[in-house]
Amino acid sequence: MSTKPNQIETVELRTLKQEDYHDLKTAMISAYSGMGESYWREKSIDKLIEIFPEGQLCVEINGKVVATALSIIVDYAKLGETHTYVQAVGDYTFNTHTYKGDILYGIEVFVHPDYRGMRLARRLYDARKLLCENLNLKSIILGGRIPNYEKFSKELSPRQYIDKVKMKEIYDPTLTFQISNDFHVRKILKNYLPEDQQSKEFATLLEWNNIYYEHIDNYLKKSTVRIGLVQWQMRLFPTVSDLMESAEYFVDAVSDYSSDFVVFPEFFNAPLMADYNHLGEAKAIRELAKHTEYIRNRFCELAVSYNVNIIAGSMPLIEDDKLYNVSYLCRRDGSYDRSIKIHPTPSEINSWGMSGGNELKVFDTDAGRIGILICYDSEFPELARLQALEKMDILFIPFWTDTQNAYNRVRICSQARAIENECYVAITGSVGNLPKVNNMDLQYAQSAIFSPSDFAFPSNAIVAETTPNTENILIADVNLDLLKELHEFGSVKNLKDRRTDFYDLKLKSKPKQ
């Protein structure tokens, strides 16, 4: 006989109370009618509420409990990968529960049959996920029945059955629901619930990963990161000290806004070549390279004194008699790393004799994992993809372009890198003219920060951008937690959905630098 009311007046998701037991028992007997009169004993429910009250959830409709989810916390290393349900619940003593554990273990979910189709189980699962995140647990694990397997057990193995459910060729009321709620099958268990004849005593060990989990020993990383881009006006400077005085002005200005990064353009120090213009282009840039060590060291000092990580644009470097284009990451803890441009442009090769580097790195910082690609490198999608596979959060691209079409190549490719690699991309360039420096006469730039393209991000996938061809700074925040959500729950999943069974991408052994 149906007990479903004609009108739903109130629906409440809350923690379970001892006085809810009668409703719980009634709902469970109805939910498991195919397994005989199966229900939780009152003393077991009382025990669960006593030891872990926040883990026992229910949905109340019009004053009656009609759906329930029960959980405990376990130390999964002690429980082990191959276990039974009875072992998981400590033979119903629940002595496996410990607040020092790392896994939220689901031991029960059921909905009264008269209230199915109202997405009550989804409410309970969403509440479980929130609990898992709030308690900083690695994941939710549970053993899931496969009740429709009895219809296919003679023709399909459990693995074949599960594969067909995943491909939606077979509907299973339990497993189909779990998969739709972002659980994945971790293992097939035998004799998990010996009394479950519908599942032929098989079960799926299912897991939902908490993307916000932080190991207790990890240092706290920021979720909101503030980026400052310097759209640098090219002007002549009498000395390298004068140039760095101007650079310090921008570092000071950006750091006043509590920024985590300040980014300068490619070859921002090119005005210093004016003193060597009479030597010819190739010799002039090699003279400029003599200032690189000083500029790098000065930026390292500024990073510490102004408490901001600095992407020091790019500058020429001579190493083993070869000329490279190098960008330095100067961290605010005093350390530094470098990224060498891998693809010099034809102009850089022909005018300066520039060589390409053989280093591709992702750097750890106190504000996320970052990559640096210099200008033309942004137009080679393989590089950013390899960095993304190393869990890069933000890609910085200092650039120098002389015309709008050259700029658009960098901009459009950079925006593509953000979308296809599910990361933020920040580009910054220089503006103005340098009439006394050959090969650096004109500048065109519009600096910007790009995001992936999904509901959590701006509809045009542009976080912020500057006015073109005007010296200014751009300061904007990016949220790294949104990237975690995108990786797991995005409308599309460019990184996860790669057909690595069909193609692959990897670095060859590194040539000698």
From TrEMBL:
GO terms for molecular function: acyltransferase activity. Keywords: Acyltransferase, Transferase. Residues 225-480 form the CN hydrolase domain. It holds the Pfam family CN_hydrolase. Gene3D superfamilies: 3.40.630.30, Carbon-nitrogen hydrolase. Coiled coil: none annotated. Residues 11-172 form the N-acetyltransferase domain. This is GNAT family N-acetyltransferase.
